[in-house]
Amino acid sequence: MNATNVETAHAPAHEWNLTRFAGGSITEAIGSIGAVVLAIIGLAGVLPNLMASVATIIIGVAILLEGLRLPLTSQVRGVTTGFFAGVTGIVLGILALFGTSTQTLLAVALIVFGASLLLGGFELSQGGALQSGAEEIEVLGFGSGGHVLAGLGALVLGILAVIGLSPLVLTLAGLLCVGAVFLCYEMWTSRGLAAFARK
User: Chain centroid to CA 29: how far?
Assistant: First the structure.
């Protein structure tokens, strides 16, 4: 089998990766918009505990999806920190929604998200490019810096919230920050995919 046949044989797999990457980006972007809107509503004083709990669950799902998607579409291999952080955030969000110590649980979830974004930023920077045939699409590295900065911010706000300094306000602000970073990252990713598709 010559090189042309080998490239043709692998083309469906590369196209599947691109399709999966794009589909995940759209899903995460929609979730990020929802989380940002809920955080803003909560900061406005409308059912802040409920808004923060639901936003936490949504962001947990977004981080989980990114953690599942990254190893399939880049040079990063194995289970990423995003997978565990997403599952943890979802569980904490559900417990905060139906349980007690809501503000503490949400603050801990924010710390988990912050740590995940911080580590995930380094994973993205080391992940290289999304491979497609003989070409590469540099979309994974676009959000690494934003992930690191948002991770540091979420960590600081989460720790201050756990200490007890306006915990609900700080948690909502942190969730707003994380949701906004995810939204910007997914928009940048979609832009990169669109540019690649036009080649």
Answer: 9
Three-class DSSP category at 132:
strand
Measuring CA to CA, which residue among 177, 168, 124 is closest to residue 149? 177
Residue 198, phi then psi, degrees to nearest 5: -80, -10
CA-to-CA distance for 86 and 163, rounded, in angstroms? 23
State the DSSP H helix or E strand holding residue 60, giving kind and residue range, or none if neither: helix 48-73
d(CA 117, CA 164) in angstroms, rounded, equals 23
Q: How many helical (H) and strand (E) elements, i.e. helices and strands, does the chain have?
A: 6, 2
Model confidence over 4-36: pLDDT tens digits? 443 444 444 444 445 545 455 677 788 899 999
Torsional sign, CA 61, 67, 68, 74: positive
Q: Which residues of 100-110 are buried (b: 16+ CB within 10 A; e: fewer)?
A: eebbbbbbbbb
Q: Say what the alpha-carbon torsion angle 40, 154, 102, 95 is, to the nearest 10 degrees.
A: 100
Give the model confidence (pLDDT) of 117-171 as tens digits: 888 777 666 554 444 443 444 555 445 677 888 899 999 999 999 998 899 999 9
Q: Which pTM does this prediction carry? A: 0.78
